Amino acid sequence: MWLEQLRRRLAKPKTSVQLCLLGVSAGLIAAFFIILFRLTILFFQSLFLETPDNFTTLPTLERVLMPLIAALLIATFAAFTGFKHYRLGIPFVIHRIKRHYGQMPLYNTVNQFVGGALALISGFSVGREGPSVHMGATGASILADKLHLPHNAMRTLSGCGVAAGIAASFNTPLAAVIFVMEVVLREYKVHIFVPIMLAALTGALATQFVFGEGSELALISITALSGWHYPYLILCGMALGAIAYSFNQNLMLIIKTFKPLSMFPRLLIAGCIASIIAYAVPQAMGSGMSAITIAVESPENAQLLTTILIAKLLATLFAIGLGIPGGLIGPVIGLGVLTGTLMAFFAQFISPGADIAGTYGVLGMAGLLAATLHAPLAALTTVMELTSSPEIIVPAMLVITTAYVTALQVFGNRSIFLQQLDFQGLPYHVSPATEALQKVGIMDDMDEDFKLLYSDDKEQIKNTLDAMDSQTPLIVFDEENGYRLAEYDLTLMSGETININYISLQGISSQSTLADAFDILKDKRSGALYVYNLLDNQQIMGLLRWDQINNILTIRNSLL
């Protein structure tokens, strides 16, 4: 009984204690999977690495063979599990949330866990946030599915799982919330914002408990920049916007070029390229966080930083472009820090003797992240959280806005996630009407005051209608016609004869949203649906008419 009350409560598009508690639960589940994922990587890396993600100490032969063996294992596992379509990570999660309320296929997530772990253990230039987001969304989806929650609540909980995944990956709960709103859901609603915020907090606290509170950017020292730097920062932002556009274009070019190849040869080619880069520039291996350490330790070595930047750029493009499971954000952060540190060489002429390499490294990360992902606010909050430095805010805003506008208006750049979705043919566009109706469960607006009659006898139906209130709908059922809505057809009155009009009813699950009902009735712009219990399709719970949906769209839309 309490579960039924919970489902009815969650069908409403409002913040509630129940939804907040479920958001926390989704955050805990996501954190469990992500902690397990990170511990798996750390355990296996500890067997052959002195420092996690630092592959420079490995013997050359081991360093070269590891990506090849990992690519072979990833392809073999995917083939063994029958996983043929390599749709993973943040783009796939966006598609599932937009078009399937965040329901995630389990086999897909298992491949993401195993493949992502193998890729990161062996030094591929991919991020851990892609698998983390995928697993977080899956954990929330499983929770909602097991409790048979309305799909509008499942959609919110999937956003909670994504937020927990981002927060657990980078220890940035606020940036995780903004990322979900700005990139994944692409909307700001209070009743969604609060549980997602709690989930991000839960994910961050759980991972802090296991791995500590430190972050890679904590190594970077931030120095306040004078106003004389601002004109140069505008030029830096413009350059970062151009680099982001070039990165996105080349990544999509690699994806399109190698599309005719099946998954197995693509992954082996990725392993070969990673092995060549590992042989020549071992500092370019890893998720991208190791590049931050190098930039901090050797900010004056422009030749080394440039070499690592080029090698890491190639390693990231070919790893992601050829289908190695992993995230994009981690490597972009590393590339941004390297680029910003190199830009600091010219800034030394503005402030001679000042240690500004770290500041420019963070600003490079912020600008590249904002322009590549089309997430300026998420990039700004990431910088604020990772540095805990108020001095960085104004320069970061200047670089981020310049980079974003340059990439968007000058080059026509689009979010790399949306470009990947378009190429894969995964829809993510939702009409404003559908998006509004997706937030309301069908149980919130169905008419529960109805009469159900199991008979096709016209006289009995007529007598029932006579005995009922005119405002109460009558649903009749017989084996031949199924469920129908019976009502007097007052337009066909002839003398004392009153005809009965029947409207065929199609069933819809109590787990559905008004968007699902809208899709069924939108062609006729009339009619009605009966709502059946998800756990017992013989139990009719209510009736929903087209007029009620139309009322939502025309009158109550602003409330959604």
Automatic annotation (TrEMBL):
It holds the Pfam family Voltage_CLC. It comes from the Bacteria. GO terms for molecular function: chloride channel activity. It is found in: Membrane. The keyword Ion transport applies. The chain crosses the membrane at residues 21-44, 64-83, 104-126, 156-180, 192-211, 231-251, 263-282, 302-321, 328-350, 356-380, 392-411. It is a multi-pass membrane protein. GO terms for cellular component: chloride channel complex. The keyword Ion transport applies. Keywords: Chloride, Chloride channel, Ion channel, Ion transport, Membrane, Transmembrane, Transmembrane helix, Transport. This is Chloride channel protein. It comes from Pseudoalteromonas espejiana.
